[in-house]
């Protein structure tokens, strides 16, 4: 956990005072809605369908137990007793009152938290691998770099009014768990032949209306130049990114319109002026930030706990959970654990205040008082002794947080959708629930194997549907809610964008369609190890399409034609 | 009525801002007085402008590249940067380039949709004068310069970033 120093604390306190005054002036009529909007957005406050929505930053997904308790307190005191963990490792409260927000921010500041730049056309919360610092395949621990980027981006005076929002993700492992190929900037921390740390820099990835996989513009950026190079990218974007059309304003469009080579040349030309300037990082600063992170004091343990292996052999339920929700750890005898927020019947990513308090207790007792939020909208206890796993499982089960579905079809990523969000074309939560009910049988889920199913309620793609093995997108068809389905998307190293299988479906048709996709997969896979997405890659979408639509495809198109003509 | 803030104080404004006409034609230049001219006017008639009595300023629109005036700085007494909407942030980069790359030391004025809540970042990017479009609350707006007492990054007002200053203190 990064611990604030006096300046870090002073800045968030000053931010609370600034926003308190801005809110006061807005409520007094001294600040118009248009002038207030970007200010409140840069403090995470949206005006939503029913009430304001407050998005609180969880920098790079890292959270201390006392911070989670503070979030529980906020949920109880100022909201309706729950919060929603988002795909950007943040948490959202759906029912705060505008006039209470300064007090909420003050409470957050008291536990070294804030809502700074969680929305608006600025540099947003930097996200990373939810197993940062503990993953066995990690080459470089990304947390220190994330904090350096957090500080650099916080109140950056030049980049507060960009053409559009700007998201940076950092990965330091062999497997990309931070979706760096679909961010405005993706940073892959690597080591060169001499063992020096640097970054492979990708730009122009993103989902939304125009999904694009990012392009590498620099293979190896030595770490001292990280901030000056980011300044150069952001300056080129700030000056030349499109501002005439918000749908074409993301950096991905600039990179595409210029071509990656021309964009790279512009960044290099800008960087030539900034390189080796005062923003150049020093070993002393990296060491200082490193020291401000508390690190678990691990015990020396056997690689494999006997207690753990015995419990695995004894209890099938425990073994099922361990098979899905327990992850390898770089320290012998430890494991990382996912507490699933994907129980059937609960909106994906939602947690009640009581659950948050209970998870904070679990973190204190089992995981050095720390936890992570994953971009798959689950909570992670990152440092659990193997010998504690069985006891933890029992407690998590009692809390409804032990659904053994990580990586399976019911671990659905979903945005809040039309139930809450004013941008949505269609609801997400009931669709997720209907699919979870359809595939509730655990044996069936395990038989289907690894499958990412992602749902977005609109083209803004907060539910990352483009990179789901199965992606579901809410669309508006003549005022009615319909769902377009794509397959073959993937996150991680082999990131890919899914292909739409055909015309969209009504809400109640969706579970049947998913079932047909699964049947096609099961009938066509060459072995149990060939995953759904592998079959789509091998065979293309045609067999899936055929099974879903049969000759109904043609009828459907005719019908839409008639509707359009009518 | 707009109010000029200069060096964090309310100040009298002797400058006249010349704009293009609605049809895009260049404005007529008054014989005397301090004027701020649009870039195309400077490009079209630099000689005439320099021959006038009265000081000369120039303003850049948000899309205009400050490199275009880099060689003219000696002739100018003021540069203004226009913000068509306060959400158009290009002028922040323009200001830093003028100060940090082209070495502009004179008055750098933010004009257009300028309000209290942008003053702090604008000043950090090198603006020292602001034409505030809300004159009623101009006095109260002065406190915005003190919204924050420290900053992490390199900027015009703090060319050395916090981590280097901190290291220098403890050294």
Keywords:
heterodimer, A: 566 residues, alpha+beta, five-stranded antiparallel sheet, 21 strands, 39% helix, globular, B: 171 residues, alpha/beta, TIM Barrel, eight-stranded mixed sheet, 5 helices, 8 strands
Please outline the helices and strands.
The complex is a heterodimer of chains A (566) and B (171).
Chain A: H1 6-27, H2 33-41, E1 45-47, E2 52-56, E3 62-64, H3 65-78, E4 82-85, E5 91-93, H4 101-109, E6 127-128, H5 143-153, E7 168-171, E8 185-191, E9 197-203, E10 215-222, H6 226-240, H7 251-258, H8 260-274, H9 283-292, H10 306-314, H11 316-325, E11 326-327, E12 334-339, E13 350-352, H12 353-366, E14 370-373, E15 379-385, H13 389-398, E16 413-414, H14 429-438, H15 442-448, E17 453-456, E18 470-477, E19 480-487, E20 499-500, E21 505-506, H16 510-524, H17 532-539, H18 542-549, H19 552-565
Helix pairs in contact in A: 1-2, 1-4, 3-12, 6-8, 7-8, 10-11, 14-16, 16-18
Chain B: E1 3-6, E2 9-11, E3 15-17, E4 34-38, H1 39-51, E5 56-60, E6 78-83, H2 90-101, E7 107-112, H3 119-124, E8 129-132, H4 138-141, H5 162-170
Summarize this entry quickly.
The complex is a heterodimer of chains A (about 575) and B (about 170). Chain A is of the alpha+beta class and about 575 residues long.
- The stretches of 5 or more residues of chain B where confidence is low (pLDDT under 50) are none
Proportion of residues in β-strands of chain A: 15-25%
Q: Compute the gyration radius of chain A: what is it?
A: 23 Å
Q: Please bin the fraction of helical residues of chain A.
A: 25-40%
Biggest contact: A-B, 39 and 35 residues
What can be said about the biggest beta sheet of chain B? Answer: 8 strands, mixed
Number of E strands of chain B: 8
Return the CATH architecture of chain B.
Answer: Alpha-Beta Barrel
CATH first level of chain B: Alpha Beta
- Taken in chain order, the helices and strands of chain B follow as EEEEHEEHEHEHH
Helix share of residues of chain B? 25-40%
Oligomer: heterodimer
**N/C terminus separation of chain A:** 61 Å
Question: What is the makeup of the main sheet of chain A?
Answer: 6 strands, mixed
Count of distinct structural domains of chain B? 1
Q: What is the overall number of helices of chain B? A: 5
């Amino acid at each position: 956990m990064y611990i604030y120093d006096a300046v870090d604390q002073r800045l968030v306190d000053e931010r609370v005072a600034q926003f308190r005054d801005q809110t006061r002036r807005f409520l007094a009529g001294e600040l118009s809605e248009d002038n207030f909007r970007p200010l409140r957005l840069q403090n995470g406050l949206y005006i939503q369908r029913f009430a304001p929505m407050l998005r609180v930053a969880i920098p790079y997904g890292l959270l201390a137990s006392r911070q989670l308790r503070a979030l529980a307190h906020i949920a109880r005191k100022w909201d309706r007793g729950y919060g929603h963990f988002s795909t950007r490792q943040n948490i959202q409260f759906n029912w705060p009152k505008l006039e209470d927000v300064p007090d909420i921010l003050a409470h957050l500041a008291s536990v070294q938290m804030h809502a700074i730049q969680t929305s608006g056309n600025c540099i947003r919360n930097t996200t990373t691998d939810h197993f940062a610092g503990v993953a066995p395949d990690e080459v470089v621990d990304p947390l220190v770099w994330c904090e350096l980027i957090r500080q650099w981006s916080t109140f950056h005076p030049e980049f507060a009014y960009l053409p559009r929002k700007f998201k940076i993700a950092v990965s330091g492992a062999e497997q990309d768990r931070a979706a760096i190929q679909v961010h405005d900037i993706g940073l892959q921390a690597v080591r060169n032949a001499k063992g020096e740390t640097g970054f492979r820099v990708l730009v122009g990835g993103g989902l939304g209306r125009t999904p694009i996989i990012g392009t590498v513009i620099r293979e190896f950026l030595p770490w001292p130049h990280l901030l000056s190079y980011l300044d150069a990218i952001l300056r080129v974007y700030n000056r030349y990114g499109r501002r005439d059309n918000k749908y074409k304003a993301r950096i991905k469009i600039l990179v595409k319109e210029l071509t990656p080579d021309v964009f790279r040349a512009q960044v290099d030309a800008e960087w030539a002026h900034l390189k080796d300037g005062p923003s150049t990082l020093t070993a002393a600063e990296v060491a200082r930030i490193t020291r401000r992170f508390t690190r678990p004091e691990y015990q020396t343990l056997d690689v494999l706990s006997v207690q753990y292996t015995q419990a695995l052999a004894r209890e099938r339920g425990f073994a099922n959970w361990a098979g899905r929700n327990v992850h390898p750890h770089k320290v012998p005898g430890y494991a990382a654990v996912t507490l699933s927020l994907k129980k059937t019947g609960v909106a994906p990513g939602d947690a009640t205040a009581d659950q948050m308090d209970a998870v904070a207790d679990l973190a204190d007792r089992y995981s050095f008082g720390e936890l992570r939020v994953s971009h798959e909208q689950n909570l992670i206890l990152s440092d659990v002794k193997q010998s504690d796993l069985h006891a933890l499982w029992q407690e998590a089960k009692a809390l409804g947080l032990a659904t053994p579905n990580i990586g399976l079809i019911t671990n659905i990523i979903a945005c809040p959708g039309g139930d809450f969000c004013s941008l949505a074309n269609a609801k997400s939560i009931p669709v997720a629930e209907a699919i979870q009910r359809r595939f509730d049988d655990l044996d069936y889920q395990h038989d289907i194997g690894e499958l990412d199913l992602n749902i977005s309620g609109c083209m803004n793609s907060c539910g990352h549907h483009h990179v789901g093995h199965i992606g579901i997108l809410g669309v508006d068809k003549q005022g009615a809610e319909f769902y377009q389905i794509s397959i073959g998307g993937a996150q991680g190293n082999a990131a890919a964008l899914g292909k739409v299988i055909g015309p969209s479906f009504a809400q109640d048709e969706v579970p049947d369609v998913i079932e047909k996709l699964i049947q096609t997969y099961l009938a066509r896979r060459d072995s149990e190890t060939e995953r759904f997405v592998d079959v789509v890659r091998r065979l293309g979408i045609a067999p899936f399409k055929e099974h879903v639509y049969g000759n109904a495809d043609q009828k459907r198109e005719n019908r839409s034609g008639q509707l359009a003509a009518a | 009525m707009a109010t000029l803030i200069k060096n964090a104080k309310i100040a009298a404004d002797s400058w006249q801002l010349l704009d293009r006409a609605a049809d895009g034609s260049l404005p007529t230049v008054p014989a005397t007085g301090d004027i701020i001219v649009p870039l195309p006017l400077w490009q079209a008639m630099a000689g005439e402008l320099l021959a006038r009595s009265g000081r000369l300023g120039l303003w850049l629109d948000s899309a205009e590249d400050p490199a275009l005036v880099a060689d003219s700085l000696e002739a100018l007494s003021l540069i203004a940067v226009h913000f068509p909407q306060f959400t158009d942030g290009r002028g922040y980069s323009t200001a830093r380039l003028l100060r940090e790359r082209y070495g502009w030391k004179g008055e750098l004025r933010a004009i257009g949709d300028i309000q209290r809540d942008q003053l702090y970042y604008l000043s950090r990017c090198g603006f020292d004068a602001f034409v505030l479009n809300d004159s009623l609350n101009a006095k109260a707006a002065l406190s915005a310069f003190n919204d924050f007492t420290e900053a992490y990054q390199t900027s015009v007002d703090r060319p050395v970033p916090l981590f280097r200053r901190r290291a220098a203190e403890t050294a």
